[in-house]
Design brief:
The structure is a homodimer.
Chain A: E1 2-6, H1 10-19, E2 27-32, H2 35-43, E3 60-61, E4 66-70, H3 76-85, E5 90-93, H4 100-110, E6 113-115, H5 139-142, H6 145-151, E7 154-156, H7 165-177, E8 180-190, E9 193-194, H8 205-213, E10 217-220, E11 224-227, E12 235-239, E13 244-250, H9 254-262, E14 267-272, H10 276-288, E15 296-300, E16 303-307, H11 309-316, E17 327-328, E18 330-341, E19 344-355, H12 356-363, H13 367-385, E20 392-394, H14 401-410, E21 416-419
Parallel strand pairs in A: 1-2, 1-5, 2-4, 5-6, 6-7, 7-20, 8-14
Antiparallel strand pairs in A: 3-4, 8-18, 9-17, 10-11, 10-14, 12-13, 13-14, 15-16, 18-19, 19-21
Keywords (chains A, B): ATP-binding, Nucleotide-binding
Organism (chains A, B): Streptomyces spongiicola
GO molecular function, one term (chains A, B): ATP binding
Chain lengths: ~425, ~425
């Protein structure tokens, strides 16, 4: 298997470090808009004799299995050419969700498989944004479902940790733990702190704003998908392994769009443990309009310039990928399932916890970024070995869960289950 | 008297509308970085037959007493030349405090009098910012005190409403209402709301951030000037004329630096009725670093650009000068004084309230902007008639208060006093 990884940010860099320890693939091209960033990721890959921070091997590393390239993820033709030139079987998208569509179309055109960790963006309903869906997450991708089916290739969408592992948990619950499911509720929480920063999000603020300020989507059998106002239905969820109770609120997330397509459940929700301080911060940004992506005109050094306020917010904050050294605590992703087994009510929480201290020591990557990155590598390995196979656009829950969960454990990062 | 007004924003425009009704000056040149803005201010001046919004008189109006010019307020030489070319006796600075020093120096060099409504900016103490003063508001200006004294011209600094009228009130209290003063506490509050906006500051957000997030300064006899953390010593102050109780907090303001130079008081403070929502917003902006003025690098349409985060915040919000039509309520500026008169304790609040409905109807200017603008016009008239005279750098409290307060009432905008 030859892989084109697009995006050498925090997640992409962690992907290279995790993949370097596995032998299921032949070659991985690491491509980024900023070629230096791609080269740095390649140079940091562990190899016989340790990493090569100076990049003296000319951009290949890890026994020559990695190489760096420059590509503009928004340039579909350039991505297609790169896939062809490098004879890649699969494109792994580790960029902002803004670049999903060009990368998705380029893969289809080039006859390559495709994996991403976030789906194409939503647009709120023009008149009833907090009641009805407009364009949903992934709609633009699923519009090409027939083309993908005909291509004989698989587009495995939403294959990070959330969406991704959370969807695998839902499928596992449906297959092995429940006879019928009342609610699947993905619940995400952490107790991470960053030394020296009052406010330092552990994940891309661009994406965090996008998912937290868009109208949250909920699925109910009979009613289908609908939306609510931001931060709706707050609840305190008790997270395992010492994280403890965190206030969670509804957030727009891919699982709610994916799970009902393959798993029978009366209700599907996603709640994020933002905590009240973070919710307050997001509310203020929204009130001022600093969450907006449409550019505003501002005085620059050489006259007026146009910038997106959300990009300015991101530029003011530290890059989450660089915070690992000063971060303390654990992050938990998981799926809470309520239903019936053998005629009796049952409730479980299937979860995966990463301790930042461990991920920094083992991989030099901070916990949230590492937890996102490990899952698509496991999925690539399942596709490479044929343990997972299929054609068309598929979510993680379209595949048997057991092989994934077993291989994840083999990667040294086991999952857990709490009966409640 | 020939006046050079620099700055045709909300306050500058209101200055032209107020001055147009008075005959103490011969000519007013309205200069701005954006000449269109200066022309619009001039064209909007009421004249025989009404205003001239199309500017068809070629940039003069109000019986030829106003004309427009372009000037960069940061270009000292250009301002000096303009003063000379237009034979102006006085420069009235209605720009951001960033431009105080070049305008102040240009006036000195040109032999013109100078008035402003905010003083040169402070810089926090490098090690103990919330305990000790670094560079104080106005320090850079007072460093030129000797030059101004020798020039025979007056630099009347801090002559808006706050600082300005609030300082006049302090002098009036010292002269006519108290034998000794324990505390002079300037207190500013409003009940203004803006239709259609959850968050729409009624005054320059650039200046509001500057004064609210800098360490607040306090004066005490014996101890001198010192600082506290932002938003310190919250108190609820009951504002008159139906505004009612508002939570006020310490804020860095010029009165604390000016009043002790000319008025005997054991303690001088400034508290601003921000309200808890506004304090929360400012805290969040500060936590993210969006209050910063040093530029950050952001992706622009044609590659990376450098912008100041605070300018981006301002660009996201509506221009306060344009909000008058959708604004409701009143704004109150005033000075609370506690002390002794005839051996008995006394407490008074001297205040000036502007109802937005009135200022919009009478002058087409929103209340906060109009209230700031009327005071320097009154001061100019006192200087023109000789009722006020002096040389050197002087605050409003360096002059007798009575002529100012009487003329303000003659302008149709009376002040009030509450014995408490």
């Amino acid at each position: 298997m030859r892989v084109l990884l697009v995006g050498a940010g925090g997640v992409g860099t962690a992907v290279t470090r995790i993949a370097a320890r596995r032998d299921f693939f032949e070659h991985m091209v690491v491509a980024d808009y900023d070629e230096d960033r791609a080269r740095a990721a390649v140079a940091g890959v562990p190899r016989a004799g340790g990493p090569d921070p100076a990049g003296t091997d000319g951009g290949t590393a890890g026994g020559g299995r990695f190489s760096a390239a420059r590509v503009d993820a928004s340039d579909e033709a350039a991505v297609r050419e790169l896939l062809a030139r490098e004879r890649c079987d699969v494109l792994l998208n580790a960029t902002d969700p803004r670049f999903v569509m060009p990368l998705f179309r380029a893969s289809l055109a080039a006859g390559a498989h495709y994996l991403d960790m976030a789906m194409s963006l939503s647009r709120p309903h023009p008149r009833r944004p907090y009641e009805e869906c407009g364009v949903k997450l992934g709609d633009e991708q699923f519009a090409l479902a027939e083309d993908w089916s005909e291509s004989g290739r698989v587009a495995l969408v939403g294959m990070g940790v959330e969406p991704g592992l959370s969807d695998v948990f839902a499928r596992h619950a449906a297959d092995e733990l429940f006879d019928s499911i009342e609610e699947v509720g993905v619940r995400d929480g952490a107790n991470l702190t960053v030394e020296g920063h009052d406010f330092a999000p552990s994940f891309s603020i661009w994406t965090t704003i996008e998912e937290c300020l868009n109208p949250p989507v909920v699925f109910e059998t009979g009613r289908g998908w609908f939306t609510t106002p931001p931060f709706s239905e707050p609840e305190v969820f008790d997270f395992p392994e010492g994280i403890g109770p965190v206030e969670c609120v509804n957030v727009e997330h891919e699982e709610v769009l994916l799970i009902p397509r393959w798993v029978d459940a009366d209700r599907v929700t996603f709640k994020y443990g933002l905590g009240s301080d973070f919710v307050n911060t997001l509310r203020v940004l929204h009130q001022i309009g600093l969450d907006r992506t449409e550019p505003v005109t501002v005085r620059g050094a050489d006259g007026p310039v146009r910038v997106s306020p959300r990009d300015v917010v991101a530029a003011c904050l530290p890059d989450p990928a660089t915070l690992g050294d000063r971060m303390r605590g654990k992050t938990c992703a998981g799926t809470w399932v309520k239903g019936v087994r053998d005629g009796r009510p049952r409730e479980v929480y299937l979860y995966h916890v990463v301790d930042n201290e461990w991920s920094m020591r083992e991989y030099g990557s901070q916990a949230v970024v590492w937890q996102t990155a490990v899952n698509p590598v496991v999925a690539l390995e399942l596709l490479a070995t044929g343990a997972w196979s299929g054609t068309g656009i598929l979510g993680p829950e379209a595949f048997e869960a057991r092989p994934f969960l077993d291989l994840l454990t083999e990667y040294g990062t086991p999952w857990g289950m709490r009966e409640q």
